[in-house]
Structures
1.
Amino acid sequence: MELTGYHSKPAASLRLEVKSTLDAARAASIRVRQFLKDNGLEEKQLSEWELVLVEATNNVAEHGNRNERDESFGLDVVAETDGVEIRVTDYTEGFEYPETVDLPDPLSEGGRGLFLIEAICDSVVYMKGKGMNCLVMRKGCDEEQIVFDTDQQESGGGEEVESLRHQVAELDEALDGMTEELSSSYESLAAIFKFSQELSKQRDLDEFSHLILDHLLTITESDWYVLRIKHEGELRTFSVSAETVVLPLALSRDPDSSLELGAAKARQDLWIEGAESFTENEPLNHFSESKSGIVHPFYLNEDLVGTLSVGNTNEKKPLSAGQVNVLHTFSDFLALQILNARYQDEQIKSKVVSRELEIAANIQRSLLPKTLPEFDGFTLDGFYQSARHVGGDFYDAVITPSGGLLLTIADVMGKGVPAAMFAAILRTVLRSQQELAAQPAALLQRANQLLYDDLDGVDMFITVQLVYVSPGGDYGVCASAGHCPLLVGNPKSGKFRSIEADGPPIGIMKDLQFDDNKFDMDAGSRLILYTDGVTEARNNNGDLWGDDTLAQWWKSAIGTHLTAEALKNNLIDTVKEFVGDAAATDDFTFLVLADDKLKE
Amino acid sequence: MNIENKETVLAVSGIAELAAGNAAQVRDDVRAALTDVHKSIEFDLSGTSFLDSSGLGTLISLHKTMAAKEGSVKLVNPTPVATQVLELTRMHRIFEIVRT
């Protein structure tokens, strides 16, 4: 090789014969690095050459060792203070150098070697020969000084030099810009924290996010942004830079149809690269003029919080890593602020909920009869105690127009105001249909017809038990819609009965049939209607009080506690003793009727 | 190289270089340490003085492994040398780069 125009600055050169193995290739690259360092190259250039060399030689090492000659390859390095030329000469079959070297698919695990070499070097030439190939890579060289191809020098090398110098100047400028931008980024981060102090004072979150995002536009050299926050299965627009309506995005929508959903699904940033990034139905289509941009999904504890998209409609300027980092920091910071604000909202909501429960409890209490009716020869008493989450228990007792007694006990499956409302409606329905009181089954059927549509609409249902006692109290008729059994007993005759439900709860099906169960009430009979809160009372060990315990208590208590009130108090005390200080989980409701004639 | 379990994070550190010579080994070792519990792999690249295209291949391969189970690969404090390679190949778009 003849070096021309080389008189003013001496060049150093190195020649290495390298074994075709990865380790030897790596060792050679380190050796060359040291050589270049000794010749005054700076750290950044050293790293670049090291990378270029590794990329150039890995391929040779991997494809070498197929025959005797390719056990090794040659490295020629020529260094001069301003530039370096390295040649890799190998004896493999070689490869077809592509016309243009592009980046492979982002998820491809290989195929970036040549791209890196080209990205770093100023010029790359690959000469493929028979059983011998040569890759020549140059960076920062003056064509006049280091020449490997005399033909090329003759054909207007001067222009090329000018163009290279121009490129170098442009690169320098770009680097300066980048440095400046990064330092401004850090100032911005400091600014965020200043903002956050203001936020804690009074600033409205909306205004704050606009402020911070406008700042982000400057840093990322973008001209629009869309911030969306996940809320109830949608990505809702929280803040937009432009005067436009960006509709909410259902998370169930096809992620391929939306950049934001696509990014959220893939859990990674998506890049906007001109119009082809926008599909026909793209929700961000208002910004489809964008030449560059990024869509960033952000998370808190692995949960999607939202997406932040920025873009540039004026010029193609993909974000640098530094800008992307700032964008990530901004979005993380905003996510925290927004979630904080939402948490405060939720606290207000929970206050609303407790107010709702209070209202429900009031409705519930108003349903209970203030005084129970007098029914000749009998005593009647009831008890209702609500659990923390107001359920829908209630009881009622009315004297029918024919002089009988209609007892009602019900449990609406549901909570809060809706359950209480249904309890109220059911009570009204039953009270308004008293001509059917003597046929409780028909009354239940009517109630179901009237309430089914409303109950079905809110997925609620009601268990109800109706007990009609004939005037004079000779017999009773019981009908039940999925409710607990009716317990009937007579300590005098020793007869006990448990009358089970014979129909499903109302609100389950449109047309329900119930049966009337008639039972005799000889003198001294007692009966108890109760809800499952009684038998499902639990103590601190989690033990149920249970159906059997209730039946045993009933058999023994009715012999000794003669009035309805005495039975009521005894049941309350007995269950209280069992439960101890465990919190009630369900409403606790029952109604006792006792034939007072036993006392005589 | 150190591989540590930090709850749902598999933290990989102490990688002096990630290049053709050790890329496959690193990939296999990390994969072997990976369990269903892990939601992300964090590569501490703060001491990585050399990263080449084979090293990138390893990172991408693990990224795909994690993406298949909706996890991710994060690159923590990459050195300027590593950052340059990531930026040149636009891999900073694929990986979350964390600066602490």
2.
Amino acid sequence: MNTSKQKLFLGLVAFHLALVILGAFQVPLSNEVGDYFYQMYGKITGASSGYGFFAPGVGTQLRASFEVHDTKGTITKVPLEQGRNREADLRIGNIVGWFWKDTLGGDAPESGTEKGATSKRRDIQRSMTASWAGKIFGRYPETKSVVVILEEYQMPSMDEYRKGERPYWTKYYRAKFEKKSGT
Amino acid sequence: MKRWLSNVGPAISKFFFAPASPRPLAVLRITVAATLLLQAILIAPEFFDFFGTNGVLQESLSKYFSEPGTPRMGAVVTFLAKYGFSERTVMAAAGSLYLISLIMLTVGAFTGLSSVVTWFLHWVFMSSSYTTNYGADVFAHIFLFYLMVVPCGAAFSVDNWRKGLPEMASWQARLGLRLVQFHLCIMYLASAVEKWPGPQWHDGEVMWRALNLPVYLQFDFTWLAQYPWLCKLMAWESLAVEGLYFIFIWPKLTRKLWVYLVVALHLGIALFLGLHIFGIIMAALTWSVYGWSATPQKVSQKSEEQQTGWAPQPLGSPS
């Protein structure tokens, strides 16, 4: 025989797990109010999380590097990652990865390219690279200008690799930022 | 039929409420908190770059990308600035408090309070640097929430030692354990279902790409191109371990094997893809709640019989 307290807690567990199932299988709620509360509950508990890691497959990678032009005319190429440890560098890579996400804002009309992207998307991307360039200006005070270079990794399939193709980086985006005089 | 039905109720009741040892939940607490402590130490040198208003992403952008309605560091900084606190002071205080709460949670000191503080600060940091997040953070958030509501401090804890309490089995530990166990089953099934339509998972290309992309590259695995069957085998093995988890993790006969397979899978991810924190935390989840016996050592003196209908004796219940 179960106490009413046990029944109440079992009900709460069942309710929570039902929401976990909705989140895990990305089942949308048709009721607007219900969806609002579900989203809020999901943010607090993590119940609305999806688990599609490496699904449906592994894509490619975007990397950011910076050409640092100093006042003496020297050009140095540096990464955004500081190389302190794997966890920190992984997180920097995640930030860079947001640059080409569909969920960035605005539209990316052609998958895998930025051709014809809306002005909103371009503005956000420009702001992102400006923010990264600002970090580089901070790290290297003698810098006159910074060129942000984003490159996409072209990965051959196993079959292509056996036939002699090799991976390489292609230019994806480039932007130059000058230090304002007096700053 | 009637007799069968009359047996179902008590069996379900036993499955969810038979007093369980708090040890699996305590191990969950220790492993999750200790892994997050390690993560915090690794991130600490970049703390202001990730979470500060003048970080790698400036505050306006960071706010734009964050989930609406979640607590953010920027809001706390702005609020406390009115009272003369600098951003660095506020952030250093929040970061220090997070470290202290993680240490307390790991050792089980003031477990109730430290679990709440840890969960909340982890959420704040996660929301404040949304673009840096990945799977490890998602799972940490989920399981830190569970640590607040299950009796994870009832074993292997300073609290027990301080109060002179022995480990007590309880129905709360059993129900909490079931909650976490079911969540893991749902998670692995959903993960396999999402992977299944991907052609890369069928021909093994997913392993080739993951092991050779610069972001995950730890060792030279280009030789795998000569052995596509090996990639295919690894991909199908991962799908099988995840997709059949909810079946084979329950029977005593297969449980140990599945725990080993899951732990090996995640330690493999940690080692060969360099996702150290993710791999450790995922391996720890299954290892703690399925790898540790929940068979009670001692049952509470507070007449468990009255609460559950079972006499306080060692139980051979499903653990």
3.
Amino acid sequence: MPTPHPAPPPARREFRNIHALRDLPSYRLPPAGWVSILHRISGALMFVLLPFIIWMFDTSISSEYSFARFSSAFNNGLWLLPAVLVKLVTLALIWAYLHHLIAGLRHVYMDVNHAVSKEFGRSSALFTLALSLGLTAVLGAKLFGLY
Amino acid sequence: MAVNFGSKRIVVGAHYGLRDWLAQRVTATLMALFTAVVLLQVIFSKGPIGYAAWAGIFVPQWMKALTFTVILALTYHVWVGMRDIWMDYIKPLGLRLSLQVATIVWLVACAGWAIQVLWRV
């Protein structure tokens, strides 16, 4: 949000326009930083894939025939996409939803509780990453037919 | 202080207030509850989940009302989030406005499709 701020004292250098390729790879993010940027990335991913999500909703509930087309996408592929690619995109969506949900609950919890400390920020961030990745692994194994 | 009101107001900015911040959390809570409602119905359905069991979840009128509300909540939630992304990374105002308009078109189209699907079952 563009908050208006007073002009900084001239002695202090301002660092602006971080170069995505030159500067970002050298940044070492704390766990809360990873949760934060992944929250944004997962949200943007779901925004871009919204038509695919609604396509799954559409074909899975409209009729028996469309349900068969829905299942077929995961077994025989969809248009030019092989089934494994459909599954990978779905796996990405599963991760995105889980991460976005858990990171969001963490936000709301911090908002209503006001119990914000450096330790809680770190431990809850690690919990978020572990839970979202763990559940993604469990559901991904099911998606790829490992059990 | 830089003047950013009156004729200098950033027309593709946020409302500089509480409303969208709160709306994003309220809509998020609603979607989390919806997730729990769908998940519980899937978990407690009997037998393997085929077409009838899955589509049957969305048949009752209360579930249609809830899903309809969640589609609207999702649309607003995503709008706030995507607008934040455009405001953070896209500085040229013309490009930012174009992306914001495209986002609205994209979201309203998707919401319309989802609502249409909902009343198909």
